[in-house]
Amino acid sequence: MSNPVFSNSDVFGEPRRTGAPRGARGGTATAPNPYSQYGTAGPASMDASQLGAMYDAPSATTADTKRLTYDDVIVKTGGLLALLVVVAAATFVLAPGLMWIGLIGGLILGLVNAFKRNPSPFLIIAYTVFQGMFVGGISYVYNGFAEGAITQAVIGTLVTFVGALLLFRSGKVRVTAKFTRWLMIAMIGYVAFALINFVLVAFGVLDGWGLRSGPIGIVIGLIAIGLAAASLIVDFDSIKRGVEAGAPAKMAWAAAFGLLVTLIWLYLEFLRLAAIFASSD
């Protein structure tokens, strides 16, 4: 998987092949509950009266069974995005210098949340606040390079998100093992390029946008946006897998966090591309 938030999860990640456990004397052991680590217990034994009452009761909904639903993911993702926008706007207007605090805090909490098997709403909300500081501060910087870059980046992010969702829903883009492997290799290559470019600019070997300058920088920016869009499609597939598998409702926090990570990356790429376009005029 491209997004570590989903790829490191037993719920959203690719299913693993495991051998069937055997009993101590050749019998078949009971399969473990895959969601026991998230606090979801298996069914308890019932007597005849309890079974009859269950049979007569109306069908349970996903809310009754406390399983993950698309509505859960949408609500939590929307809430986190709203918080991010509020913090980013406040940082942009009042204290752009908080960008560095947001960068460090967001990086630390991003790693912590990405590798937590049991999502923590508090840590995910804290990550969103720090990222809001970073996004607000970096938006202020880029707006100095290209006035209107923020509006262009927001529109580009929304359009790409909707386009990726429609492509996924249409079935025209299938998330296969080959697709995710290609995306992983491409993203590793892009990260390596970005780190090399950062070092060259930081030590004065190159100036301005470094290797991203001019037409080459625009092409690289478009490639990065394409990778982020592909990552969104993989994220959608991971969420679909979790919903269909009956994952616990609390995993909606992990899904929302994963989508937020990809959307922030996509926004930053559009922001950088707008600034590169403006500097090449």
How would you describe this protein?
It contains ten helices and no strands. Mean pLDDT is 83; it is low at 16-36. The chain is an all-alpha fold and 281 residues long. It has one domain (62-279).
Order of helices and strands: HHHHHHHHHH
User: Tell me about the biggest sheet?
Assistant: none
Oligomer: single chain
The number of distinct helices, counting runs of at least 4 residues, comes to 10
Write the layout of secondary structure elements.
Layout: H1 4-7, H2 48-56, H3 62-65, H4 70-94, H5 99-114, H6 121-145, H7 149-170, H8 177-202, H9 214-244, H10 251-279
Briefly characterize the structure:
The protein is mostly helical. The protein has 10 helices and no strands.
Question: Key features?
Answer:
BaxI_1-like, Bax inhibitor-1/YccA family protein, 281 residues, 10 helices, transmembrane, globular, mainly alpha, 68% helix, membrane, transmembrane helix
